[in-house]
Each structure stands twice: as C-alpha cells, then as structure tokens.
Design brief:
The complex is a heterotrimer of chains A (328), B (325) and C (412).
Chain A lengths: L4 H26 L14 H10 L5 E3 L5 H7 L5 H8 L32 H15 L6 E6 L6 H13 L3 E7 L8 H4 L16 E5 L3 H16 L5 E6 L19 H7 L2 H12 L4 H24 L22
Parallel strand pairs in A: 1-2, 2-3, 3-5, 4-5
Helix pairs in contact in A: 1-2, 1-3, 1-10, 1-11, 2-3, 2-8, 4-11, 5-6
Chain B lengths: L1 E5 H15 L3 E5 L15 H4 L4 E3 L4 H13 L3 E6 L9 H7 L3 H4 L9 E6 L14 H5 L5 E3 L4 H13 L4 E6 L6 E5 L11 E4 L4 E5 L3 H13 L5 E5 L2 E3 L3 H11 L2 E4 L8 H13 L8 E3 L10 H7 L3 H13 L1
Chain C lengths: L2 E4 L9 E7 L6 E2 L4 E7 L2 E6 L4 E6 L6 E3 L3 E6 L14 H4 L34 H10 L17 H9 L10 H5 L9 H16 L2 E9 L1 H16 L6 H15 L5 E4 L2 E4 L5 E3 L1 E3 L2 E3 L2 E2 L7 H16 L5 H4 L4 E5 L18 E15 L2 E15 L5 H16 L10
Parallel strand pairs in C: 12-16, 16-17
Antiparallel strand pairs in C: 1-8, 2-4, 2-7, 3-6, 4-5, 6-8, 9-18, 10-11, 12-15, 13-14, 17-18
Classes of the chains: A alpha/beta (328), B alpha/beta (325), C alpha+beta (412).
Chain lengths: 328, 325, 412
C-alpha cells in the first residue's frame, strides 16, 4: 500500500524535524549545556514518525529513552520548544526540568512518559489499555520497546496478560540490533524477535523500520485490531542507530562497515528519493521543508538557552498529592 | 451502630462498601475474584461485580504495573499481594514506578492505587511468607504505608487508603485476621498520617502497632499494678509517620519503648528513636529501648519462630530498664 | 510440680474456647488420659485430657466461661499435693528497685536536693526538662523563676541559659526569703537519718558539757609556715587540722580518760587512738577516722586527711573508715566560729571543737603583744571525765603545740 504525496510530504517533514532536533541535541550535549545522559535516535526517524503519525492524540503513548522524535511529534507545535527546554533542565521545560531527556511526559496529549527501568512501561501500558476497556473507550496503547527490553520479565508478564484479556496494546519493538553492546542474537534465541509473540498467541510482523511506507500500514493494522477489541499486536521494526547507545559512546562494538551499510538506508534519503522520483516533488520544495525545520529548531534552541533555571524549592513539590515535603 | 466482627470481615466491608460508592474501584490479584482471596478478604466481590474483580496469572509486576497505568487514567485499583514478602518480586513497580508517578507528572496525575499486602509472622510459614516488610518501603518518598491494628482501624483505614490519591501499601498482619472488635456497620473513614494515642499515661511512652499493640496493652496493665502509667501510641500510618504525636508523648513521659516486629537494625524503631533524640533529647530521663524480632530470617519450627519473634518478657524488661535508669 | 493447664488451641485459627463442663472436682486425683472437661469451639466440642497422673488442685474458670487460648484454666499438681497459697509472682518492688530513693546512694546521678520520683509520687505537669535541671544545678541557679518555652511549657536548657545570660536569675541565697513562701518537703536519706539518731542518742545518754580555751598558736603558725612548702613539694597539703590531729593523738596517749567510755557498768579504755574528723558534705555530715594517729607521722596524717576529704566529696568513704573512732575533731574555724559546743559522737567521750585562728592583742609581762590565738572547745562526757582532767588535756595540747616543731620529726 502506498501513501499519498501530501501524506508523504508531511511525514518527510516530521522525519527531518526529528533528525535536526537530534543533531542539535547532540551538539549541546557534547558542549556540556545539556546535563546528564542523552540517547539519540538518529537513523530511526521513520519508525518514530510512522508510529506517531497513525496514533491519535487520545491514544496512550509510552516513549522510551530513544524516542525524542516520538515525543516531539506527539506534542502540540507550540509545546515543542518546551521539550528542548526540558532537556536543558530549564524551568520552562514541559516538566519543569525535573525529568529531562528520559522522562518527558505530556498528559494532555497522552504522552505517558518513560520509566527508566527497562520493561516498566511495558506493564504500566497494561494499565492504560485496561482502563480503555474498563471505561469502554476505543483508545489504544502503544509501548516503545527495544530489542534489549525484551529480556525483562515484565515484558513476558505483560504480553501474557494482554493476550489473555485481549487488551488494546501495541508492542512496538524497535530492533536497532543492539541493546548497548550486545547484539540481540547473542541474548535471544529467536532469529527475529517478533517470533517471541507466537508463544503468547499474539499476532506479529517484522517491518523495515527505515521505510516509512512499510511502517505506517503495519501500525494501522495493529491499531485497527486493538480498537476492534481483538487484543494486542507486536510489530518488530528493523532499524539502526547511527550513534552509540548514549551520546559519547564510541560504539566500538560494531563491526567495520555496518554503520556505513545502514547509512545507505537512511530513511530520510530514501523518502526524499521517492518524493522526487515517484511524486514529482521538486528539489526546491524539499529545500523549503528543510528551511522551515531549520527555523523551528533554532527557535527551540533559543527558547531553551534563554529560559531560566527552575527554583530549587520546586524539587520538594508533588511528592504526595496532599502533603508538603519540607524544603531546606 | 456497632457490632463485633473479625478483622477480615472489616476489610471485606471496607472494600464492598467503597465499591458501592465509587465505580472506579476494582480489585486485582491472584485468586482474588472467584476464590475471594487466599485469606478470604475479597470474598463476595466478584459475585456482585464480575467486571470489577480480576484474577491474574502469577505476575506481581504486571499486577502493580497495570494498577499504576490504570490509576493514572483515573481508576482506583486495589491490588492484592498474597504475601507481603512477594513485594520483593515487584519491588521495582512499587518503589520505582508507583512512588514516583505523581512527582514525574508534576502533580497532574496521581498513582491512586492500593496494594494490600499480607504481612507478619507467627503462623509457622517460614522465610518468604512471614516478613514485616515496612522497612523496605519506608525509605521511599512518595509512598504511603498503612498498618491497622484492630478491626475498627482495618475498615476505617482501608477506606481512606482507597480514597487517597497517593499510592498506598496497606499492610494487613495475618495474625490479626481472626481477631475481633467493635466495628460500625456504616461506611466511615479514619484519617491517614495520624497516630492514635490508645492510652494516656505519664511515665513511659510505648510505640506499638499491628500485633504489637496487644503487647503494649498487656504491659501497660501490668505496670499499672505498680502505680506506673504507660502511654501507648499506635502510629497507624508508618509513612509518612506522625512524628509530632510520638515526640510530644515522649516529651511528657521522658521515656520511650518501641515494640516492633521484624529485625531491629533499620526497623522503624530506629527512625522513631532518631526523631525522638533529635527533637526532645533534653526531655529524656532514660535512653530509648526497642523490643524487636531477632535479626534473622523467620524459621518454621514453632520453638524457633517463637524465639525469633519479639518477646513479651522483653517488653516488661525494657519498661523496668527505662524506669530504673 | 504445680503448674497451670491452659486453654488449648485445638485448631490453627482457634482464638478462644468455652468450657462446656468440668468432669473433675478440685482435689480429685486423676490418671494420664482422664477427661478433665469439655471445651466447645463454635460448633465443635473437644475433650480436655490430663497429660499426666496428678491432682486437680484448682479450677480457674467456671462452666460456661469463654477463655482465650493460652490462658490458664486449671491448676494441676503432683498426686496427693494440696494447694498451698501459690506465691504470686514477686511484686515489682522486690524484683527490681525501680528508683534509687530510700537507699544511701553514694553514686547517685541526681543532683543533690532534688526530689526523687518514687512510684507513688505523681507530677502533674513536669516543669523542667532533665537536662535543664542539670544545667540549673551546674550554674547554681534557682529555676523556679525561669519562664519555660519548651513543650508543655517546660523549662529547657536554653531557657536556663537565656535567663542566666540576661542576668535575670537570682543567686540561690538572695531569694531565700521569697522561695521560703513555697516550702518544700524532702525525704531523709539513710545518712541523714543515721546522723539525726546519733545526735539524739548522744545527748540523751551522756552528761556532756563543754569547756573552752584560747590556745596560743604562735609556735603552731610558725611551724606551719616553715613546713608548708616542703609538704607541698611532696604533693601533700599541710593543714592546721593535720597538725591538731597529731597533737591531739599525742595528748590522748597520756590522757586515757578522754578515750574511755562506759559500757554497762564498766569503764572501758580504748587502746587505739583513731581520730575522727567531722566532714561537711553536700547533704549532711560524715565522720571518718584516721587510724592509730599517734603512730603516724605528720606527712602521713596530712596525706590521709587530704585523701579522706576528697573521698568524702565523692561519697566513697569505706565502712571501715567510718567505724572504730576513739575521739573526734570538729573544725568550724573556716567559718569564723570561735566557741561552740560540739556534740559527742556516740561511743566517744570527747570531741574537740576547733575555731578560728585570729590575731589578738595580749598583755604579757606588762608588754603588749600581737599573738595568733586558736579557739578550742572541748566537749567531754562528765560521767567519765570531769572538768579538771579535761582542762589538763587541753593544757597538754597547748604544751605540745608550743613545741610544734617536734611534731614534724620522723617523717622519713
């Protein structure tokens, strides 16, 4: 199935936005402006953009640590600069600077945020899916997972329960080949991780994660099943991360030439080629997309740089809903 | 109107009466629905509300994780841990997930779940079915830990726990399930975060909860025969603890004996002692004393288990020691 | 052999049982396996069996009573035993002393003069914290006038410190007039009781009377001045009291009557010359003695005296040191007292009261001289020794002290 030119142009812009966001974040992380760890998703844009493109604002989304793209795209445009501010740890950050890169959440668009313990959101996702059924709504839950995540026991508990109760859950297993330094073939017996779902009688498919025109239909299929009350689906998106696990990881564990081969399959390059060749889009139209993205991104950066730091006493707020913790 | 019922029945009533009031409340756990729970606490609920009672596989992490997700969506899950020891299996979900959700969401959503956990020893069920686990949880900001001592408290505190918007671990000491007490028929709640002064006194403050409350009451009666009066403070909520009531009591009496089941080292008695030393050291007439279990796992043979559990004779001994100082 | 039989736990969840009926009577002999009674638990009935041969001594619960598991329901004894009054568990007071009041507590941690809390006493609102009280004692201030800002309005250490720094607190003595209005009851300790009794006994059982003399202390003062430093270099403090002890001990060798007492219808002269020293301590008076003072040199006496004074302060005088005294010296000279009538220590016939040394103007051989004079008051038991021999004893002391230097020999 192919998607329309307008749709493709839209998701192309989405992917470029992610790419430029990640590149700027890498720069500000390396120069020390962004504190802590950063996990970059350069090279995985098609997976992130495709999943978010299909889901509705009312669907529950659990991004993982490598999902800045999914986070940006699911937020309202006016909130995107606040996500950059959140990574910078500023007061204007969408969570007041208290979470940073790994914990960005925005409940009004049902971005449920990430719990840094791998596999945790896989069971929390059970709860939002359960709530949809309990409340008789059509909202589905999509959980971002990695190949590494599948080692956790919670994943097994989750898929077991979701399948038994037919919960509207989509397991988005983004297989970028490596957990940190361990190839998935060294830690799992299945040649394709999607097969794991067979053991739980859960429909599953393997998809080229760098081809947005393969990602979107696969997600649409899973979403349709979920909304129809047919239960969970697992999609394995084959893709690759260009950087190391975290920004600064030299990734010496990768064999020679592997990165170059995957760079050939750059999702943005592939989609641009199609736009130009199959949809008659002009180079200058593509350039204007890039220009638009550029100006947006520099707006985010400027906003983040100029924003103030949080008040230290904010650290004691919201530990409980009804009790104040004493500040210093 | 009140009548005498068991601790178990009081809990069941709290659940059923609260479920009548609020359709967002549901129960989930192993054998909680059709069987009514391993200890019968949830009996009758599945029959009344088949879509609000869920039996799960043996998946403690999924039980609590699901409860977290459902809670953020506005539901009020009451999950059961068949034995509090099993919280070890899903400890991550309790301390890393549930406890931190409200903070992570900047107060925009809350983890309004209850995890009922069956706690405590004395029933000859050995290592992994007998522990008092509150110390595992009390060091985690964001959690609420509640521990009733009587049927009256069981009902009132469980209702408050369900209504609370914070994640509550509700500790039910299995040794109390068959104890009886006066419990009003109607729906009522008891405040969280508030200790109860069970008995007023002048000479010694005894801090004791759950099954240890009985030790304290017995000791107070015996000390009274010699003209000494003990004040008994039952914390009821272990986290956040009502330190002020305890501190004031010790300021008045000048002497403190904490009676807690579970190992002494880093048991909650240590925190009570520290609070007292930090705040009212100059009011003290004697060092504090703690009466606790031994620092061992809980063994099976009655002779062994009874040896490990707190000794009533140690309570009297501690009282005499603080009086004689 | 006697032991209780408790309500058994017939099932894991059983909390209590009802005694449907007893099958035995008090005093009845039974064999192992006999039915003692019927216990009902909800709808089930169980038999309570005797676990050994013996006698049912006492039934502790009536038929129909419901008793919790583990509570005693029957007292069982050996065959043929009867029930003597079973001694109740010893009352708390006999097992453990709860407070230290009522004992002569030489190592009491409580500051002196404090009312001890006994079991019966009840303090409605404690006014001062233990540490606050300790500080008040240390600083020597009367806390009754300090405003308490602690919990329940109690006076805290900080309150005591603040009041002291503000200069608001009166020294304890100056406010006696005001504090008297409140009055105070204090239970006597053992030492105080014993001293009171001794005084009473002494006055009632002897015919004591006092004579006094102004002793010329010229030579004594000279000797003291010249030997003071030498003693000091040996780490010993030389005092007039030490010199007097040696002098009195020497005089007692000759004047037996002052070391004679009446026992029954006999005069008993004591061989040992053990000189008692009356020492004023925090809440009373003790009189330890220096044994065989006549056989010791002045170095030894001075050193022993110093040690006794120290130990008296720490309340660590031994029983041995407190008994066997022959004659006592009581020195009130440091208070400016001249003459007084010291009371005999029971079991002694003489006590020498020592007053101040002061310079007085004396006429001698028509000339005017300034001499140091020591006031002495000797109380003697007139039943044993009359005025004249007592006066002669004092004269001997004067003679000895006129050659005070001689007391300083044999010090190696």
């Amino acid at each position: 199935m192919t998607i329309s030119k307008e749709h493709l142009l839209k998701v192309y812009e989405d992917m470029v936005l992610i790419r430029r966001f990640e590149e700027e974040v890498e720069k500000y992380s390396k120069n020390g402006t962004i504190p802590g760890f950063i996990h970059l998703g350069v090279g995985q844009e098609a997976t992130q953009a495709g999943i978010i493109d299909v889901l509705l604002k009312t669907d529950y989304k659990f991004p993982d640590h490598r999902s800045h793209g999914a986070i940006i795209l699911s937020s309202a445009p006016e909130d995107r600069k606040r996500i950059m501010a959140e990574l910078f740890g500023k007061k204007t950050g969408i969570n007041g600077g208290r979470g940073g890169s790994m914990h960005v959440n925005d409940l009004k668009v049902r971005n449920m945020g990430f719990n840094a313990i791998e596999g945790s959101i896989v069971v929390t996702g059970l709860g939002t899916a359960f709530a949809s059924v309990y409340n008789h709504t059509q909202d589905v839950t999509a959980v971002f997972m990695g190949d590494g995540t599948l080692g956790e026991g919670t994943c097994h508990e989750s898929i077991n329960m979701a399948a038994t109760w037919k919960l509207p859950l989509i397991y988005c297993v983004v297989n970028n080949q490596y957990a940190i330094s361990t190839r998935f073939t060294e830690s799992h017996p299945q040649p394709q991780l999607a097969m794991w779902a067979d053991g739980y009688c859960v429909p599953n498919e393997v998809v080229d994660g760098n081809d947005i025109e393969a990602v979107i239909p696969a997600v649409e299929r899973a979403v349709a099943r979920a909304r129809a009350g047919q239960g969970p689906t697992l999609i394995e998106f084959m893709t690759y991360r260009w950087q190391g696990h975290f920004s600064g990881d030299p990734a010496a564990y990768r064999p020679e030439g592997e990165l170059e081969r995957w760079k050939e399959k750059d999702p943005i390059k592939l989609t641009k080629a199609r736009l130009l060749s199959e949809h008659g889009v002009k180079e200058r139209d593509v350039q204007s997309i890039h220009a638009r993205v550029e100006s947006e991104i520099s707006g985010y950066i400027q906003f983040a740089l100029e924003s103030p730091n949080p008040d230290p006493e904010d650290a004691v707020k919201h530990v409980y809903t009804d009790i104040e913790v004493e500040a210093r | 109107m009140s009548r005498i019922i068991t601790f178990s029945k009081a809990l069941n009533e709290a659940l059923q009466q609260e479920m009548e009031q609020d359709e967002k409340v549901f129960i989930i756990g192993e054998d909680v629905a059709k069987m009514g729970g391993d200890f019968g606490i949830t009996s009758g609920i599945w029959k009344r509300w088949p879509t609000r009672a869920y039996d799960t596989a043996l998946s403690e992490s999924a039980i609590v994780g699901l409860s977290c997700g459902a809670a953020i969506c506005g539901l009020r899950p009451v999950a059961e841990m068949m034995f509090a020891d099993f919280i070890g299996v899903c400890y991550d979900q309790v301390v890393n997930n549930a406890a931190k959700l409200c903070y992570m969401y900047n107060g925009q959503a809350s983890a309004q779940l209850v995890v009922r956990a069956v706690t405590g020893g004395g029933i000859r069920c050995a290592y992994q079915h007998s522990q008092c686990i509150e110390p595992w949880l009390m060091n985690v900001p964001g959690l609420v830990v509640v521990a009733p001592a009587t049927p009256y408290e069981a009902k009132g505190l469980l209702v408050s726990a369900i209504r609370s918007n914070n994640p509550v671990v509700f500790l039910e000491h299995k040794g109390l399930y068959n104890t009886k007490g006066d419990v009003p028929e109607e729906l009522y709640s008891l405040p969280l975060y508030k200790a109860n002064v069970e008995r007023a006194g002048r000479d010694i403050t005894l801090v004791a909860g759950m099954t240890m409350l009985n030790f304290a009451k017995r000791a107070a009666e015996e000390m009274a025969k010699d003209g000494l009066s003990c004040e008994i403070v039952n914390p009821r909520t272990l986290l956040p603890m009502d330190g002020e009531t305890i501190i004031n009591s010790v300021a008045k009496t000048g002497r403190l004996v904490v009676i807690q089941e579970g190992p002494k080292f880093m048991g909650y008695g240590a925190e009570v002692g520290s609070m007292v030393y930090e705040n009212v050291f100059e009011y003290l007439k004697a060092p504090i004393r703690r009466v606790t279990s031994l620092d061992t796992p809980v063994p099976f043979s009655p002779v062994l288990e009874d040896y490990v559990m707190p000794q009533y004779s140690d309570v009297l001994k501690a009282c005499h020691e603080v009086m004689a100082f | 052999m006697t032991h209780s039989v408790v309500m058994p736990r017939f099932g894991a969840t059983m909390e209590e049982g009802t005694i449907n009926s007893w099958s035995v009577k008090e005093g009845q002999t039974v064999s192992k396996g006999d039915v003692l009674g019927e216990i009902a638990i909800e709808k089930l009935t169980n038999e309570l069996l005797a676990e050994e041969d013996g006698t049912v001594l006492k039934l502790l619960a009536e038929e129909g009573a419901t008793i919790a598991c583990g509570e005693p329901i029957l007292i069982f004894g050996a065959a043929g035993e009867t029930l003597e009054a079973i001694a109740p568990a010893p009352r708390l007071a006999e097992r453990t002393p709860l407070t230290k009041s009522g004992e002569m507590d030489l190592s009491s941690k409580r500051p002196s003069g404090t009312t001890q809390t006994t079991r019966a006493e009840y303090r409605e609102s404690p006014q001062i914290t233990p540490k606050g009280l300790q500080l008040a004692e240390e600083l020597g201030v009367d806390y009754h006038f300090v405003k308490g800002t602690g919990r329940f309005g109690m006076i805290t250490r900080e309150d005591v410190l603040a009041a002291k720094n503000a200069g608001l607190l009166p020294k304890a003595g100056a406010e006696i007039a005001r504090s008297v209005a409140s009055g105070e009851t204090q239970k006597m300790n053992m030492m105080q009781l014993s001293v009171a009794n001794a005084m009473d006994t002494s006055l009632k059982s002897t015919a004591q009377t006092t004579i006094s003399m102004d002793l010329d202390a010229t030579d004594m003062v000279k000797a003291y001045q010249s030997h003071k430093e030498e003693f000091g270099q040996k780490g010993i403090r030389l005092t007039y009291t030490a010199i007097l002890v040696k002098a009195v001990a020497a005089a007692l060798v000759e004047h037996k009557l002052l070391r004679t007492v009446i026992e029954g219808t006999n005069f008993v002269t004591r061989a040992e010359i053990n000189i008692g020293i009356a020492i004023d301590i925090a809440d009373g008076l003790i009189v330890p003695n220096i044994k065989n003072a006549n056989q010791k040199n002045l170095l030894q006496i001075a050193s022993e005296l110093e040690a006794l004074l120290d130990r008296a302060k720490n309340k660590s005088i031994s029983q041995e040191e407190m008994t066997g005294g022959t004659f006592t010296i009581s020195n009130l000279g440091m208070f400016g007292i001249k003459y007084f009538t010291p009371i005999l220590k029971p079991g002694e016939s003489g006590i020498l009261g020592v007053g101040t040394i002061q310079d007085v103007v004396q006429v001698q051989n028509g000339g005017i001289f300034v001499k140091p004079v020591l006031n002495l008051s000797l109380t003697h038991d007139h039943r044993v020794v009359n005025g004249a021999p007592s006066a002669r004893f004092l004269q001997t002391i004067q003679h000895i002290l006129n050659e005070c230097e001689s007391l300083f020999v044999n010090q190696e």
